[in-house]
Structure formats: C-alpha cells, structure tokens
Design the sequence.
C-alpha cells in the first residue's frame, strides 16, 4: 500500500447537496490513484475502528473529500441499553474523520449481550419509541452533534405494534431533534412487503428533518403460492420504481444529499458514479424547478 | 399493558433465541403471518445473521477455508456462529474462539495442524486491526547509561504478536495461501514446534521464525520485564542482537524506567 499518514483535513467536512457514493474497501486504492469527481463519500463507521491500513486509507481520502459516517452497530432500539464501549469506538472514529454527517438506524441488533449482525425490526409501540428516543438523546449528547436516523427495510411486522412506522420515525425526529436519513429503497421494499402505500410514508415525514437520502438496489424473491418478497441486498442498480419514488421524495423534501449504496458484489467505482450521475441530474432538476418556482 | 403483549426486552430476547436456534418458538407467536409463515419471516433474518458472520470468518481464516474446502468451512462456520455469537458490534474482533472450536471438531481431526493454522490466522487478524502506536524511539535509548538501560522496561507494539505452534504452521500457511502444491508436499509435519513472531509492517504482514531461546527472551521482554530481568530469566547468547533487531523493526513501545518494578524487586531481595 502507498499511503502516507496525513493529518489535518484540507477539505471542509460539509456534505453538499449532491450525490455521494458508498465507499468500500475495494475502492480505497482506485480513489487515491484517480481522484474521481465524486462530491462526497460515505463509509460504515464499524469498518474503521481499529488501526492499520483501512483508517490510513480513509485519512488520505478524507484529505480530499467530505465523509459521512454511517453506523450499523449502535443498536438504538435495544431494550438492554446502549453498549458504552461501542459508543466510545464510534466517537473516536468521529473525532478522527471529522465527518459531515453521522447516521444510524431505526433498528436493534443486540439482545442477551450478543450482537446479531443485522438490523432487526422493532415492534412499533410506545415503549419502543421511548427506548429509541432515549438512546438517540444519549448518542447526540455523547457525540455532541445531531445524528440522522434511517428507516429500515423489514420482512416482518409484530402483532402488537400500534404506531405506523412513518409516524414512529417522525416522532423520533420531533422528540429528539435528530434528522432523518430517508432510505427510499427501504420504503419501497417495506411497502411492497407489507402492502403499504409508499407515498403515505413519504408524506408523513417532516421535510425539514430530512438530512440525507439513500438509494440502493434490491432483489425479488419468489415465494410459494406466487407471492414475492423484496430483499434489501444492495447488490444491483437502483430499480426504476425506486428512481420514480426518489423523484417524488425530492418534490416533497427539496434537494437533499443523496447516497448510492452497493454492498453485495461491490462493483468498480465507475458503475457507482453512473448511478450517482442519475441522482445528480434529478437533484439539479429539483434545484432548477425550485428556483423557477421562487422567481415566478 | 395487556398481559399478552410482550415487553421490548421479551421480544428481543425471544428473537435472539430464535435467530440462534430456529426451534425456539416464542418469537413467531408475535409475528404477523400475512401470507408467509412467521418462522419463515424470522428465517430471513437468521440467514442474514449466519451469512454475515460466515463472511467475517471467511475473511479472517482464508487458509483454514482452503485446507478444509469451502463446503466444510461453511458448515463449521454455521455451527460456530450458532454457538458463539459475537459479544459486540465491532466484528473485526469476532472469531477468537474459532480456533478452539476447530480443535474440538471431530470431523477436522484428520488435519492435525488445522487448529494451529487457525491460531496463526487469528494472530494475523489481531495484528491487522491493532491500534496505530508510534514505536519506541531508538534515539531516546542512546541517552541512557548502561545501568539505566538494564532497568529499562518495554512492551510489545500492539501490531506485533508471538505464537508457538506444534507444527511448522508458517510454512503450511504460506503454501496454502499461495496454492503452492510443491511447498505443501515438502512440508515435514514432524519439523515442529516453531516459534513465530507476527508483525504488521508498512508492506503487509510478516510471519518470522525465531529460535526457541530468542522467542522466550522476546516473550519476557514483551511482557514488560526489565531488560536485566529478561536477560536473567532467559539467558540467550544473542539477546542483545535480538533486542537491537526488535528495536530496529519497531516491535517495541513505551520504554519507561520502572521505579515500581525496581522497588518491588528490592523488596523481594530484602525480605
């Protein structure tokens, strides 16, 4: 590897209202070699918690690009409480990277002292709402910054849930002051899986709280009796239906920093840049339309 | 709250048990079927859990996987992740017990050096993700008198580890990863034990063989014993050369005069 250890960021931490790309390990060297025209990158916080080459690469990339940190391990919805050691690890990555955005998920992963390595669905109850809000408060106080909370993709619902997921998420934002990371693909996947209207979901979210949008591919699994289930595997290009929903989201929220994610069979950065260019075009159109409306 | 309504803790603990063992039937009771068996809905999450952790193990133990074949490895990983779920969300730390698990696995007994290869790969994994710490500055030592030097206490750099293996594991590991059949055929399993030092350097991972005495002296040094005590404990002929090599290679950190250790040595001597 050929990375000098670089300290001090040359580029501001600010994530601009443009399309960014989910940076994975295979992109480290190509990004340093070619310095592609990407507005910003997002990485998984948990991939940069130790020492060695990965954080050195990130330091070098951070020198030239704003970075958003997207965590998967805080388990905001755990009844057992937050893992203080993990929160401390997150903070040390935040201090090192100086990210423009920090985000986590409306989900849980820890029970019985074990980490279940997935973003698991919460029952949508008043109790879960108060647990999530308490943990978001704790995280924001500890990190001394606002975080974004992302809507999940889910494959099951609990019979004792009493609050629609969109209302639950809007409540979390309202009660804690956190922002919302609106994953449009997740809304589409969950809506198909549970028979929801995705527009109901988008309409319920407070536009002022939307800090970022995620776009990714999903797969369709055929079940018995002709049923289908959509799986959020981040393993392909963004589906046409999700692009359509993204355009609706931009109409409601205005232009928002938008990320292209790809985690299964991660392609070269050029493919991700093609997807980002589509998002960028939609963002520019939205900028343009807003300007037009304002001056009319 | 309705007596039939589970608390958040109850539902999470029930899901945890179900994800580790599909036979545990408490969680499905609270899941809406909606055209698909609740057990099958939970199964989607169980598959994600198992495959995410199998991937973590596959990345940490590539030579083990090569030795036993992908199918056997997936099977062993599946058993392991159901028995030994991670304790926290930093998965770079996951897999420490896999070596012992493989050592106990009856089906793996035909490959006697398998657990040793797993132990080596685990040490490599630890070294890969160890914290970045500046190594001991040699110029600071030059200023010390011989007496001060003798009382010097050092520790191993976090990206340096020692390992003793019954088999020539370093040679096996290299041959397996390089898919070098000639080297593998030339391995004499009776050649062991081997005394290894594993280090992360700017160019990657290095696995080096030390002599037994060198290794024992190094182990004494790495444990924080003063130089004079290490020399006394493990009197090697070339101890000073070993020390110089470790210093030059950045294997040591945190040189400090150890007044407390000196004082306790004095107390021991004058009891």
Sequence:
């Amino acid at each position: 590897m050929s990375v000098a250890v670089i300290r001090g960021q040359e580029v501001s931490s600010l994530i601009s209202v443009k399309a960014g790309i989910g940076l994975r390990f295979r992109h480290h060297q190509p990004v340093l070699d070619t310095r592609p025209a990407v507005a910003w990158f997002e990485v998984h916080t948990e991939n940069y918690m130790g020492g060695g080459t990965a954080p050195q690469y990130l330091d070098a990339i951070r020198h030239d690009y704003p970075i958003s940190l997207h965590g998967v391990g805080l388990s905001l919805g755990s009844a057992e409480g937050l893992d203080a050691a993990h929160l401390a690890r997150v903070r040390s990555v935040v201090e090192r990277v100086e990210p423009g955005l920090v985000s986590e998920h409306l989900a849980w992963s820890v029970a019985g002292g074990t980490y279940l390595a997935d973003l698991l669905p919460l029952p949508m109850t008043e109790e879960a709402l108060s647990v999530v809000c308490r943990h978001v408060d704790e995280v924001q106080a500890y990190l001394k910054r606002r975080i974004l909370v992302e809507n999940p993709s889910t494959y099951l619902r609990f019979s004792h849930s009493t609050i629609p997921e969109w209302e639950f998420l809007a409540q979390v934002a309202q009660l804690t002051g956190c922002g919302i990371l609106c994953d449009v693909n997740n809304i589409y996947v969950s809506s198909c899986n549970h028979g929801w209207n995705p527009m109901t979901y988008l309409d319920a979210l407070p536009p002022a709280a939307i800090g970022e949008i995620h776009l990714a591919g999903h797969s369709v699994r055929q079940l018995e009796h002709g049923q289908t289930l959509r799986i959020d595997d981040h393993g392909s290009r963004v589906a046409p239906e999700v692009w359509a929903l993204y355009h609706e989201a931009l109409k409601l929220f205005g232009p928002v920093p938008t990320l292209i994610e790809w985690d299964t069979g991660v392609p070269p950065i050029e493919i991700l840049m093609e997807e980002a260019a589509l998002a960028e075009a939609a963002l520019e159109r939205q900028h343009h339309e807003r300007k037009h409306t304002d001056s009319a | 709250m309705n007596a039939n309504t589970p608390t958040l803790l109850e539902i999470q603990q029930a899901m945890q048990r179900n994800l580790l063992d599909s036979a545990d039937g408490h969680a499905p009771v609270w899941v809406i079927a909606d055209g698909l068996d609740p057990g099958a809905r939970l199964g989607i999450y169980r598959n994600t859990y198992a495959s995410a952790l199998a991937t973590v193990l596959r990345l940490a133990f590539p030579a083990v996987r090569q030795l036993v074949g992908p199918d056997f490895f997936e099977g062993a990983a599946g058993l392991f992740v159901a028995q030994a779920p991670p304790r926290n969300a930093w998965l770079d730390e996951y897999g420490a017990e896999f070596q012992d698990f493989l050592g106990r696995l009856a089906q793996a007994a035909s490959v006697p050096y398998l657990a040793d290869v797993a132990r080596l790969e685990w040490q490599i994994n630890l070294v890969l993700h160890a914290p970045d710490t500046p190594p001991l500055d040699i110029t600071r030592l030059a200023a010390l008198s011989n007496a001060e030097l003798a009382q010097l206490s050092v520790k191993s750099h976090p990206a340096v580890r020692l390992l003793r293996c019954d088999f020539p594991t370093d040679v096996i590991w290299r041959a397996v990863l390089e898919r070098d059949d000639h080297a593998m055929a030339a391995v004499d399993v009776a050649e062991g034990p081997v005394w290894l030092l594993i280090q992360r350097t700017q160019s990657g991972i290095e696995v080096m063989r030390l002599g037994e005495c060198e290794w024992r002296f190094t182990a004494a040094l790495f444990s924080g014993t003063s130089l004079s005590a290490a020399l006394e404990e493990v009197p090697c002929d070339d101890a000073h050369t070993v020390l110089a090599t470790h210093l030059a290679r950045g294997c040591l950190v945190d040189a400090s005069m150890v007044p407390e250790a000196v004082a306790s040595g004095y107390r021991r001597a004058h009891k």
